[in-house]
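Hey, does this match?
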Amino acid sequence: MLTLTEGSLVIPLSATPGETSSFQVFPGTYNVAAAELANQDQTVVATAQVSFDTITVMFSEEAALDVAYPQVDTYSAIDVTIGDISPLEREPFHATVVRSSETLADFWGPAKHTTSLRRLPSSGTIDVSIDMVSLNNIQYSSNTKSVDVSTSLFSVTFSQADEVLPIGTTGFVQLPIVVTTDLLLDADLAGRLVGPSPDNFIYTQQVESKPGTTMVAVLVAP
């Protein structure tokens, strides 16, 4: 892909590598930009080098540009999929991608979703992990996935919790949810309570959308 620009006029051109392509454009002096060349998974990327930063095109005359790709870089790519992990289907997951203590990616993603990571190092071992989730006094943990990468696309999937443990509730309290309203709706409200770091306890409770008090089904951390 080449782009010729003169003021507000922008002309995109698509040329085939290894061939000579001809185009008709308005006369003028254009700034020239050439996009890098990459395969679909961006595991091989070549940087473009253009013979001129600007080019002047005269009426009824031909001008020439040469585009070379002298530098080729290789990468790995990883698709990270969070599965339909029950009962965490509605929870966001925090993931980190690390190689030799260097953090390559840090992101949040929902369940039943794939995050595509591109232009990662193409050698060594990359570790992909998701944080433990504490929901309604139950901890859900998943083992770290390790990938010996190369110049390829890899897939990492977290399809289940590898460890499920109850949280001790000493000192926890009962929590009432009080609804005050003049409306009568035939639907439930989804109550959600998220505690502070570092514990990040999460509590969820369905509450009827009518006046009254509903107790959270489990004891709640202070």
Remarks:
- The two ends are 58 Å apart (CA to CA).
- DSSP finds no helices and 21 strands in the chain.
